[in-house]
Amino acid sequence: MKLRTLILGLCSASALAFAAHAESITIATVNNGDMVRMQKLTDDFTKANPDIQLNWVTLEENVLRERVTTDIATKGGQYDVMTIGTYEVPIWAKQSWLLPLDKLGDDYDAKDIIPAIAGGLSVDGKLYAAPFYGESSFVMYRKDLMEKAGLKMPDAPTWDFIKQAADKMTDRANGVNGVCLRGKAGWGENMAFLTAMSNSFGARWFDENWKPQFDQPEWKNTLQFYVDLMKADGPEGASSNGFNENLALFQQGKCGMWIDATVAASFVSDPKNSTVADKVGYALAPDNGLGKRGNWLWAWSLAIPAGTKKADAAEKFVSWATSKHYAELVASKEGWANVPPGTRSSLYANAEYQKAAPFAKMTLDSINAADPTHPTVKPVPYVGVQFVAIPEFQGLGTTVGQLFSAALAGQSSVDDALKQAQDAATAAMTEGGYIK
Predict the structure, then answer these.
(1) Does residue 264 sit in helix, strand or coil?
(2) Alpha-carbon span 293 to 201, nearest angstrom
(3) For the segment 289-323, what is each residue's pLDDT rounded down to a tens digit?
(4) For residues 343 and 131, is the Cβ–Cβ distance under 8 A?
(5) What residues contact residue 78 under an 8 Å CB cut-off, 6+ apart?
(6) Residue-wise DSSP of 220-255
(7) Is the dihedral of CA 281, 284, 287, 290 positive or negative?
């Protein structure tokens, strides 16, 4: 009995000693479906790395951006891994706020990352964030409602067609809205959609001399079309709806069309969660015949802040979560259609994925069609499709997003919203030294 007690005591002491030596890393991430799924699969990582413990901070998109930006700018050191996007990576890397990812492992195969995605996450040829999933945006639509309306969705629709289809599909008596679009304020929420949309209307944030352009007819045409479309055919309370809210509406059968991130395709076509899974079709984001479509380019990516004291453990996690192995793990647990999309060329060459994901080709075509270096019809001094890659954009984009969300809610007119946006942008550009 004494021997057994001694052995148990030694085992407990060993476990405590091991726990004391285990390294704990804190990961800040967004509450999107793919990231929630990742957290459920991390036993695979901890089995291979028993000396690393994972702590999660999962936040709504706007809150995540605010928290990680504050933390990294003030060298707060709260997080060892941050989920950030294509906007932040080059700006933060140039500030020396991020560590280059040069220890991802011999079998990581960074060259397999889709060039359009890797380019936005690299500075001077070095990768500063690893893409967890990549996306553009496109049209998801109900094939049954389109047929009922007597229409056929083109592979490359115009905005006029979207308006025509939305009018015919709207059936408020039965809870069906012809179209669901982002209205929630935020530079990465409604302004991601509206900036990409404005590109197809010939609009731009700034001219070649950084003069704001919200007083030009192209922006008036964009915002007026959007507000009129949503009032006629959008859901009630649309000014509060972001990606997750519209996803839920579409899955519940309450949207005829939804123009949003290509990553949503696996969720709207998943019969476990979507009541319309077998009725969804896909098309390129709309255009106006001006040579630009209303689609964006983005990657939610994992990066390591320069202030972490646990860089090696953090990079092991980043490597695991963005690896080919992780894709195969998701496929084995959830099916190939649910693998995080848009990051690796090998996924789109995989016959099993092509068979399981009818949206695969349209997703890749949309990603490759976006051009961050020439995002608009007229020339601009900035890079970025649905954002402007300057530090001031984060605050300015959210301010403009609030003004446009208020216009959608009927709290101001389109003209007033545009005038206030012009004033806010002029003030920001003057203060930043872009214009005098």
Answers:
(1) helix
(2) 9
(3) 999 999 999 999 999 999 999 999 999 999 999 99
(4) yes
(5) 26, 28, 57, 67, 71
(6) HHHHHHHHHHHHHHSPTTGGG--HHHHHHHHHTT-E
(7) negative
> What's the chain's length in residues?
436
Instruction: For 137-296+372-431, give the CATH class.
Output: alpha beta
CATH topology of domain 2-135+298-356: D-Maltodextrin-Binding Protein; domain 2 (3.40.190)
Q: pTM of the prediction?
A: 0.89
CA atoms within 13 A on the CB side of 81: 32
User: Is 385 within 8 Å of 371 (Cβ atoms)?
Assistant: yes
- Name the residue ranges covered by the structural domains of the chain: 2-135+298-356, 137-296+372-431
pLDDT at 22: 78
CB 344 within 8 A of CB 322: no
The least confident of 3-17, 133-147, 172-186 is 3-17
Closest alpha carbon to 185 in 429, 408, 427, 419: 408
Residue 65, both tokens: 């951006």
